[in-house]
Each structure stands twice: as C-alpha cells, then as structure tokens.
Specification:
Elements (H helix, E strand, L loop, with lengths): L14 H9 L9 H10 L9 E6 L3 H5 L3 E9 L2 E8 L2 E8 L9 E4 L16 E5 L2 E4 L2 E9 L14 H12 L19 H10 L3 H6 L1 H4 L9 H15 L5 H9 L8 H11 L5 H10 L5 H9 L5 H20 L3
Parallel strand pairs: 1-8, 4-5
Antiparallel strand pairs: 1-5, 2-3, 2-6, 3-4, 6-7, 7-8
Helix pairs in contact: 4-12, 4-13, 5-13, 8-9, 8-10, 8-13, 9-10, 11-12, 12-13
C-alpha cells in the first residue's frame, strides 16, 4: 500500500488527489464541484496550507464539508485519534485512523500505518477543529482526498444469504460448542447472563425480548467500545441491512438507552449502526455472506478487530441473521 509519503499533498477533492487515491487502491466518491467550492469558502485563510490526504467515510462528510467547528480530543492511540465535535444537534465523534486500524464508519483513514507514527499523542480535552474540508488536531491537518461509503451495497433490500456461509460464520464464533456457552471478556456468563438471555430471545423468535436485553448490555464491559454495545451495534446494523421490517424500531429502542450509559465513541458508533453504517471489516463479512467476496478471510479480519469488538460485532450479526430468519419466515 502506498503511504502519504508517496502521494503529493494536494488540496482535498482535486482531480489529481482523487486519481492518486484511486491508483493507491482506495475507492473514491467524487464530491460535487459546488460542495467543494463551498468548502473552500468556509476554510480559514490561516489554514490554506496543504493537508495530509486521507480516505474519509461519507458518514462524516457533513461534518468535514461544513463550517469549521471546535472539537476536543476524546483519546489518542497509536492507530487512532478520536475527536468530539460540537454541533447544533449535539456532540458527534470523528476519528483520524491509520491504514492498519479498523475502518470505522466515523473515520478518516490515512494512507500510512501506525508503525510510521503519523499520529501525535495529545491529552484528552486538547483542542481541535473539524470542518472547512479538514480535521486539524495538534500539528496534524487531514483532508479528504477520497471518500468511501460505510453502508455496504447488497444485492437487494432483503438479500438472501448463502446457507453454507451462515454455517461458516457460526462455526467461527461457536466452534463445536453450544451457542449458550459463548462468552465475551467483561460480560457476565452463564445461564443468567445477558448473552444467554439474548440467545433465549432468539430461540423463541421474540424480537421484543431481544430488545429488552439491550437494557442489560448497553454500556456493559470495559474499553472505549464496551462489548455489550458492540453486540447491540452488530445486531442493529444487521437487522437494518438485512431488511427486517422492525429494524428501525429495534435500533431506535437500543439507541434511546445510550445517553449517559456508555462512552461517547461507542454511542456514536451505535448511531451509525442505526443507519446501517458499519466498519469495513463488518461490511466484508456481509458481502461474503451474499457471495460477493471470499468469506473466510473476511470473517478472520472481523474477529481480529480489537480485543473483543470483532467477536462481539460478529455475534451481533449472527443474532440479526437468526432474528430475520425466525421472526419473518412464514410459519
């Protein structure tokens, strides 16, 4: 993969920048000329210097292309910097990610891995700016040279999944053991735990009972994205993308529980999941399940994401698949 050292630093959205991003293997979504001109008008004159190019999710396009807004650092990691942005609708989150980070729907992905140390460590609360076509944090300015859509394109609103693919996903998750034995670090296990309650709701084909388990899962577990949230995000996005008729009600019910119960980053990812916007790793598994790409490497890539996030998201997707099958199939 080419790095930012290989790509001349041109203004975001320029034909040359898009062409270079495409040659680097990054899918591009051209911005309308009018939007690009509006972005240029809102950029401060003091920030006219070229910025480091990135491939940005269209899930944060409104923030990037809008007016310059103040932001603050939520946290910095070797592979990511997450910023909270003040907007008229309330706080939102955007991330600057290295190329070897999980491809989150709220991220701008640099063309450089974390071992090149492209991100600077800043304390939580440090000031930043988002808008006018850029993200400015510390000494780093990032602009969108290419765009990607975090909502995967599937063959139909209610796509048919390959039965062998579904079995492959379940085997990767559960192995030869029973589903009830599955557990995640940081979540209570056993027959009285929330994962067991979720599996019980699925077996009974009871969508409302599955939704009630969200009261036990949202915010549960350690880390920036608690495992309980990741399970719910995987379930919400799966129901939306697989076309379950009650997907919006389920997703809205889960999201309504998040205020004050989980981290700002996790809450932002749950909001994206409501709209079917997911990580690139999650999207790859869905595309494998409909036969559009090799499934085995996609499952391995998702399960390798984070310490628990990938397995929790995969469990959520498996839960959504079962709920779609059991609650919409004619009986």
């Amino acid at each position: 993969m080419r790095t930012i050292d290989d790509i001349p630093r041109r203004a975001a959205g320029s034909p040359n920048a898009r062409g270079q991003a495409a040659r680097a293997g990054v899918p591009t979504i051209p911005l309308p000329r009018e939007s690009a001109q509006a972005t240029a008008r809102t950029a401060a004159a003091s920030r006219a210097a070229s910025a480091v190019p990135a491939s940005a999710s269209t899930g944060v396009a409104e923030l990037l292309r809008g007016p310059v807004r103040p932001a603050r650092v939520l946290t910095t990691l070797p592979a990511a910097v997450y910023l909270q942005v003040a907007t008229e609708r309330g706080p939102e989150v955007v991330g600057v990610l290295t190329s070897d980070s999980a491809r989150l729907p709220l991220g701008c992905v640099l063309f450089r891995p974390s071992n090149g140390r492209p991100l600077v460590a800043l304390p939580a609360g440090a000031p930043a700016e988002v808008g006018g076509g850029r993200i400015v944090v510390g000494d780093l300015a990032v602009s969108a040279a290419a765009w990607w859509d975090p909502r995967p394109k599937l063959p139909s609103p209610r796509p048919a999944l390959l039965p062998e693919g579904v079995r492959q996903l379940r085997t990767a998750l559960y192995g030869d053991g029973p589903h009830s034995a599955f557990n995640l670090p940081g979540l209570p296990g056993g027959p009285g735990g929330p994962l067991a309650a979720l599996r019980g709701a699925v077996r009974r084909a009871d969508l409302d009972a599955a939704l009630r388990t969200a009261t036990r899962l949202v915010g549960l577990g350690p880390g920036l994205t608690p495992a309980g949230d990741d399970v719910m995000a995987g379930t919400m996005a799966g129901l939306v993308l697989l076309g379950h008729p009650a997907a919006d009600r389920f997703a809205g019910g889960v999201y309504a529980l998040t205020a004050g119960r989980t981290t700002e980053l996790s809450r932002a990812l749950l909001r994206h999941a409501m709209a079917g916007r997911v990580s690139g790793e999650y999207a790859a598994v869905l595309q494998g399940l409909v036969g559009e790409r090799p499934l085995g490497p996609a499952i391995a890539g998702l399960l390798a994401t984070g310490s628990t996030s990938g397995r929790a998201l995969a469990l959520g997707l498996s839960t959504a698949i079962d709920l779609v099958d059991r609650t919409t199939r004619p009986r």
